[in-house]
Structure formats: C-alpha cells, structure tokens
Amino acid sequence: MESSDADIVVDSLEYPASMDHWDSFTDFTKSSITKFISDSSLAYKFFLAFEELISNIIRSSEKHSARQATLAIRILKRNLDDKDWLVVQTVDTGIQFDPHYHQRNPVDTKQPVHERAIGGLGIFLIEQSVDCAHYQWLNGSNVNEISICIQPVSS
Amino acid sequence: MTLSIEITQGDVHVTLTLTGDVDTKTAPELLAKLTALELSLLEQLRLNLVEVDFISSAGLRAIVFAKQKMPHSSRLYLVGASEQIVETITKTGLAQAVVVVGSEEEI
Asked: Is the ipTM of this complex over 0.85?
C-alpha cells in the first residue's frame, strides 16, 4: 500500500527502541486502535500484528545494542480507493531488516509440534492479521506499515 | 501489562493459572515457570487462561517449548481461552498439539 498525501496523522510517539519503553509503545497503540476499531476481534488482530512488529524491532535493537536505535510510531488514517484505512507506521533507526512480507516460505502449520522450529511465527501472524503489511528502507530507517480497512465500500 | 502465574499441583497434573497478557515482555516469566517444572515426566499440564486477554507469538513459543519437552503421550490443556486466543492458536497450527477446553470440569 502506497502512502498518500491524504494521510491524516492521528497521533505519534517516539522513544529509544528498548524494552524499557515497551509499555509506552503498547499502551499508546492499543488505545489508538480501540478508539478507531469497535470490532473487538478486528482490534485484537491489529494489535497482535503491532505487537509482533515492534517485538522484532526492539529485540533486534537490543541485540545490536552498540547502536541505540529509536522507534517512532505514527497512527494514520488514510483514504485509498474510496476506503478508509487505519495505518500503524513504525520508523526505526536500527539495522536494515526487510521482513519480506508475503514473500517468505510460509510457516508449515501442519508440521508436528515436536518438530517445530522457533522462528517465523511473528511475521506469519502479522501477515495473517492485517489487510496489508508493507516495508521500505527510507532515508536510513526501516519503515513498516500495517493497515486494516475500517470502512468497506458500501454496495 | 503484567502477568501473574499461580501453580497448583494436582494428583496427576500441574495447573498454571495465568492472569494478564502473555506478550514479548511477560512471556519469559511463563517460560521460566515452565522450565522449572519437570516437563519430561509430566503427563498432564493445564494452562488456565480464563483471565488472559492476549497471547502473542512469544507466549505461543513458550507453549510449544512445554509440549516439546513433555512426553509424546502427554496432554497439554488450554482452559478457558478466549475466542481470539483460540483463533491464533488454530491459525498457527498449534491446535494439533493442545486440547482446548472451556473449563477444568470438562477434563
């Protein structure tokens, strides 16, 4: 999904990308999501995708702690193709990491649990939980966007 | 968000009653409690999730860890999980490894 000049920034937040600020990031975003999405099931999925997204960013930042990354979160409302979308955009200054949404080998959900590898579940859940997940490397930052349609086209 | 975990030892099972969210921040606490159990000897583990609102992949990994350490013949019950949590578990294919029940009376 391409960003648009018609984006409305509803709210934003920026802190160092560390677990010290975990509650600030999650409380802020959960509050915004529940403000705009009344369907609790949809809100749960969107927050789940967000949690998985910042988990990857913060764990990567702490793993490469010599480089203190920042994480900015922007809550956007976007009108595209006559639909309203709620977008959570993250901009982090950590090492470059492209999650390759929808281009990875899918998690084999039929694989017996005793043979399961640990990795890959987070990105899989992002892909499964939102309408659109997008990544780009822009001006030296990782920019991730997860989006959910909040107003389908009326028939 | 915090997570509290209460452990109850039954005759043939152990019950972990969780209250709170199981996310990236709190899942290590669940993993630590599970690691402290003698999982390789445990035939039945019950995770009471009635008071849990949210589980991310970090929590699912702790559940997978427990099941991988338990005997093949063992049973891992998820008790009282919300619709959204059950959906996440089903979506990731972990429903094959656990038994989802509404209450402990169903076991």
From this structure: yes
